[in-house]
Amino acid sequence: MKVMILAAGRGERMGHLTKNCPKPLLKVAGxxxxxxxxxxxxxxxxxxxxxxxxxxxxQIKTLLGSGERWGVHIEYSDExxxxxxxxxxxxxxxxxxxxQPFLIVNADLWTDFPYASLKEGxxxxxxxxxxxxxxxxxxxxxxxxxxxAQLEADERYTYSGIGVFNAAMFxxxxxxxxxxxxxxxxxxAQDQVSAQLYQGEWVDVGTPERLANLELRLQSA
Length: 221
Prior knowledge:
- The chain has helices at about 35-45, 55-65, 85-95, 180-190, 210-220; strands at about 5, 25-30, 30, 50-55, 75-80, 100-105, 110, 125-130, 145, 150, 160-165, 195-200, 200-205.
- The chain is an alpha/beta fold.
- The protein has one domain (about 5-220): Spore Coat Polysaccharide Biosynthesis Protein SpsA, Chain A (Alpha-Beta Complex), CATH 3.90.550.10.
- The protein is globular and about 40 Å long.
- The mean pLDDT is about 95.
């Protein structure tokens, strides 16, 4: 199964930290966020990567190269100076991802999620990994009922930025920038999105404060 790491975002909430550095290259525990992902995924049997880039993307290509140093293969989906958002970025990368189900991982995460558990693919168009709502997203995104994502629910969870997607779900989409969330909601309404709740370690490293807190926690551990 191929892995697409979403790394094209500008990371504006990071302020001065991303003025001259793309967010996926911010370091925690001595390595860039994106390197941590590659190493974790490699340990669990994934070695074929597609990484989308836009803002300061050349820095990512320079650091990671072809992936040879980690024993993996990396290809790049270059979106130029303007990122295509999550949905548009995946659609743009489909020629590299192929027709088989692929794993999506947001670059700005820290997690110990067992990626190997997703190698069987998805029986639906999408399989989402949900997590308990963090403080900064208390309202959550989707409900969960008997292994299926729900639009309406008393208890909602947050989409983790990890999921398995089938290329066929993008066949009706038009090239260009568009978000992924509306397409997921459309597929949920069609009963085409399975989901699971993960309650292990997961951090959305989206602000300088969260990055600093994660660094302190890892140092103390």
